[in-house]
Design brief:
The chain is mainly α and 224 residues long. The chain has a three-stranded antiparallel beta sheet with strand order 2-4-3. A two-stranded parallel sheet has the order 1-5.
Length: 224
């Protein structure tokens, strides 16, 4: 059963703190390890750690650093581990994913210029393709370094690899979408089809009333 919820940073940090780490360590893990599906800034991480400690899901102690002042290291408590396991056992949780570039795509007709749409998708494809190549290099390096890759890995690494595959497949589909969109936009440019940039009064009224949602808006555009 799928649960539609807003996933918080709390459980992500609990899971990463199965091994003691500082806030700075956690930021590095997020950037280098799971950045393809979850990102957070230090300005989010430190307040979350303090809140989890207040809930007694974490404890902390001062530890020497290689250089500079001593650092604060956090580790999960039995209460925190119980909360983490309850979250993991509750079933898949699907949050509201927000992609700014999709919102931009939805509104690109405001520019009234398909050539700008073409540049937008070319730039987006380049950026997504760069991220995809980074994950592909990660997969190649991992496979070359570990003969157990992918299905004989340790239980921990096996599940890490599953998230890596999700990132690879998701990004590949997005790059494919960009390529398809570029082809379709070029076709419209070649035909000289622009269609203006304004919604019809009928579709705007439907949108404001909330009747039919995006389907009504898109349908009215097709009729126009």
């Amino acid at each position: 059963m799928l649960h539609i919820v807003r996933v918080s940073l709390d459980h992500i940090l609990l899971g990463l703190l199965r091994q003691p780490a500082s806030g700075y360590d956690l930021k590095a893990i997020l950037d280098q390890g799971i950045g393809h599906f979850w990102a957070a800034e230090l300005s989010q991480i430190y307040p979350t750690l303090k809140r989890l400690k207040k809930k007694r899901w974490l404890r902390s102690h001062q530890a020497p650093a290689r250089r500079g002042p001593r650092r604060r290291v956090y580790e999960i408590t039995p209460v925190g581990r119980r909360a983490l396991r309850e979250w993991l056992a509750s079933g898949p949780q699907v949050g509201d994913e927000r992609f700014a570039y999709l919102a931009q795509t939805y509104l690109l007709d405001e520019l009234g210029d398909l050539n700008q749409s073409l540049r937008f998708f070319a730039q987006l494809r380049d950026r997504l393709d760069e991220k995809l190549e980074t994950l592909r290099q990660t997969e190649r390096s991992w496979a070359a370094a570990d003969p157990r890759y992918p299905d004989q890995l340790s239980l921990t690494d096996f599940h890490v690899q599953l998230t890596l595959r999700s990132g690879l497949l998701s990004l590949a589909s997005k790059v494919q979408w960009c390529t398809e969109s570029i082809r379709r936009i070029r076709s419209r440019v070649k035909r000289g089809t622009q269609n203006g940039r304004s919604l019809s009064r009928t579709s705007l009224a439907a949108h404001r009333r909330g009747r039919g949602g995006a389907v009504a808006v898109l349908d009215s555009r097709r009729r126009a």
